[in-house]
Design goal:
Low-confidence stretches: none
Oligomer: single chain
Order of helices and strands: EHEHEEEHEEE
Number of helices: 3
Helix content: 10-25%
Radius of gyration: 16 Å
Structural class: alpha/beta
């Protein structure tokens, strides 16, 4: 049996409202919010006493979803440097296709985004960049130009 689809990517954050605002500014839509707790949550994630708030964000086309999770208990932990470099093992980044990379960067900077490196052009096809967003999330942007 093959998988049906990739449902979502989950990211643990420390400021849920700020992260919702960041991804809303990017163009994602808030699908819903919920409080998660109980024995089923403990069993699912393998922790005891789970209490968290989640927000499900979706791309405008409805195919991509990002689950933002703020743990109340047990508290979230940091496993490495606060802002790990792009070559850190594990989940690397989330990439979004955008219409106007310069406008998107400008809007996201108002939400604390920092450009990593610079906007670069790949042949005559894409303009690309990486930004660091809330909770150290690396967000890549791609604008098709060719």
């Amino acid at each position: 049996m093959a998988i049906q689809r990739m449902d979502n990517v989950a990211v643990v954050v420390d400021d849920l409202e700020a992260t919702i605002a960041f991804f809303t500014e990017l163009g994602m839509e808030l699908e819903g919010e919920a409080e998660i707790e109980g024995i089923w949550a403990d069993r699912t994630v393998g922790l005891d006493g789970v209490s968290s708030a989640i927000a499900m964000m979706r791309t405008p086309d409805g195919h991509g979803k990002l689950e933002l999770t703020k743990f109340h208990t047990p508290a979230a932990i940091t496993t490495g440097p606060h802002n790990p470099p792009p070559n850190t093992l594990g989940l690397h980044r989330v990439m979004f296709a955008v219409d106007d990379i310069d406008d998107t960067i400008s809007r996201l900077r108002r939400h604390g985004a920092e450009l990593l490196g610079e906007v670069a052009q790949y042949e005559n096809v894409y303009r690309l960049c990486n930004l660091r967003g809330p909770a150290g999330i690396i967000v890549a942007l791609a604008e098709r130009i060719g």
